[in-house]
Amino acid sequence: MKLLVTGGAGYVGSVNAAHLVAAGHDVTVVDDLSTGHADAVPDGAQFVKADLAEAADELLADGFDGVLHFAARSLVGESVQRPELYWQGNVVVTLALLEAMRRHSTPRLVFSSTAATYGQPEQVPIREDAATRPTNPYGASKLAIDNMISSYATAHGLAAVSLRYFNVAGAHDRFGERHTVETHLIPIVLQVAAGKRESVQVFGDDWPTPDGTCVRDYIHVDDLAAAHLLALQHATAGRHAVYNLGSGQGFSVREVIEACRAVTGHPIPMVIAPRRDGDPAVLVASSEAAATELGWRPERTDLATIVGDAWAFSRDR
Questions:
Q1: What residues have CB less than 8 Å from 85, skipping those under 6 apart?
Q2: Which helix (H) or strand (E) holds 13?
Q3: Is the pLDDT of residue 86 over 90?
Q4: Catalytic residue among 11, 118, 138, 243
Q5: What residues pair up with 243 in beta bridges, in sequence order?
Q6: pLDDT at position 179, please?
Q7: 49 in helix, strand or coil?
Q8: Rg of the chain's alpha carbons, rounded to an integer?
Q9: How much is the pLDDT for 195?
Q10: What are phi and psi of 115, to 5 degrees?
Q11: Which end of the chain is more exposed for a tag (fewer CB within 10 A), N or C?
């Protein structure tokens, strides 16, 4: 297929673009490089540096079989402080993309959504029919996009799949996580091992969990990419399907730090800090729908594997 990958110079986008190229697809990456890196665009993909809202119409006029949409702002704290960036950069830009797709009859879309659409869960593991009550503008912007996509599928016959990620981690060859502002636990812990931070903060050790620290579901970025390829194949005209993507198991903050210590051989000092407002004690996905309907099952679920791949990438950098 001829595919447009938005945000394909970022972490998740670049890994997915690499998998698409390896699978034999004709891939064009569009990215403004505001947070992405030009050297993260995989060999074999065409690269267009542009603002997506401005370039979408001209790009899609060339005729594409589908779009994989990763371009987005994704910092929760920033979204609270500057919500306008998220309504503009996520919602308004995606509306421009959907309109360009409608005008040029681009038939299918796979959207990079997020577990942040659920907010504080009432039940764990979280299923797709759980209530969506995002607790920050980032999650709210992604939910608004999901709602837009549903309306386009109904009104215009778009074949669409939204994939709601839990905690993505790991790396794929030379493609991995390197954010200017890092907020994800595993790369932060590995920065301590690499000598870039003195210690890692643990936000609360009195949560109602086995070891008192928060529990999260980590999914390897390669497993995530496999789900996107399957979503492309299963996208159905006039339907917007939503799937959670996670490993289905939870690891505590302490367990992640211990895994990083074992992989790196570094003591990794940790400092207990107060709880952060809005943090749920446990977030774990139910990915049964993706298994049943897409035939997707994560394969790289071992925490040592996830951490080991991320550590190898960071050392190579």
A1: 73, 78, 79
A2: helix 11-22
A3: yes
A4: 138
A5: 163
A6: 80
A7: strand
A8: 19
A9: 94
A10: -65, -15
A11: C
Phi-psi region of 268 (alpha: psi -120 to 50; beta: other; left: phi over 0): left
Q: Give residues with Cβ within 8 angstroms of 279, minimum separation 6.
A: 203, 204, 214
Quick one: which H or E segment has residue 26?
Answer: strand 26-31
Q: Is 86 a catalytic residue?
A: no
Terminal Cα-to-Cα distance of the chain (whole angstroms) = 32
pLDDT tens readout for residues 117-126: 999 899 999 9
Strands 200-203, 270-273: pairing kind: parallel
CB 229 within 8 A of CB 296: no
Q: Please, what is the angle between helix 303-316 and helix 253-264, to 10°?
A: 50
CA atoms within 13 Å, Cβ hemisphere of 60: 26
Q: How far apart are CA 143 and CA 133, in angstroms?
A: 9
Nearest CA to 113 out of 288, 207, 300, 244 is that of: 244
**Residue holding tokens 């502002």?**
181
Q: Where are the alpha helices (DSSP H) in 82-236?
A: 83-86, 93-103, 137-156, 185-193, 221-234
Give pTM, 2 decimals: 0.96
Tokens (6 digits) for 136 = 């920050």
